[in-house]
């Protein structure tokens, strides 16, 4: 998820929005029926507004001969078509509500990693409320906005203080910022010094950076004492693989707080202290899972595409938007007591997270990743700084690796064998040692550079 503002601005604004703070806290206690009532109320308001104020939906209702009176409850979602990023991209202006056209809106965009970027608009104050949802999620793990000592290692401009430090303290807040692009073996000692001296309680970063730190600490366990005040890692923006979570838990002995969201801001979920499934905020958006034909999936355990409907963005209400991410419904109640719906086994965008064999069959990269996760279980130390899959030809993939000194040829062989096993020999792998794998502009490691075309992707 994009961060909208720096922590200082968000914290100050959020501290003033006590009504929203109370509302989000109350949501934790909702019964299933109360949660349905809340969603119905918000949905009716949003759906009416969409038909009355948003050209795209107004036209759809006209063409179908529907009227706004037909919107009576959550079932009325079916009156709205499934939309895709391409549709919104093509008709962006038609998705903006008439009554927000002349107002100043916050403009964001999708990352564009799986196609052309999409411009997104929302009311300015909404960006603070968005942040509030995240703070509420962090609070479960003990984070107190404005009080807890936080180190944020994110994609941001490089920074060097006069004293040569890569860590910048925000004025009047116990918040420290570092650029993920500047974190490496050379700067690690000064980062550790800040973590120890400032008794950092929370580190907000990407899963890949958390695994990197965990890997380094596994190699140099003597430095673990620097993290003695640490309470949790706050992770987002990348798929969090179970192995990475497990490694952070094991090395640092702290919990991982992760959330699932996307740039379109239609779906938001977070894990809890009892389980790793994403609990979906009822007031944030409506979530559906659909199969390839667009039919809704309601049974647990079946993978479907996540389809989101905003309940929070009146300026550009996207309804039944196919996110390109896949997940399954979870079963049963959670020990945290919340009655929210939960999703599990989230898989990122198809075109970036699958490999293709010769006949065009797709292999889920998160399964294949288990090869490296398995090796991390076998060896009690970290051995790769970063790695990245590159696929240019069906049935073949290159794995670029930035090995640590601990990496051996035996490990390379184990990766090859494991990969062979998981792809049933249908994708050939070639390991390539490199000295650098550049981070994305967003600060993340791109796990897979998929060069096969979108058309091939869509055929299967
Ligand atoms: Zn829970």
* Radius of gyration, whole Å: 23 Å
* Oligomeric state of this protein: single chain
Query: What count of domains describes the coordinates?
Result: 3
**CATH homologous superfamily label of the largest domain:** ANL, N-terminal domain
> Could you say which overall geometry the principal axes of the C-alpha atoms support?
globular
Instruction: Provide the list of bound ligands, each named once.
Output: zinc ion
What is the residue-averaged pLDDT?
A: 86
What count of helical segments does DSSP give? 14
DSSP, total strands: 21
* pLDDT < 50 stretches: 1-5, 454-460
Residue share in helices? 25-40%
Stated plainly, the CATH topology of the largest domain is called: Rossmann fold
The secondary-structure class comes to alpha/beta
Q: What fraction of residues sit in β-strands?
A: 15-25%
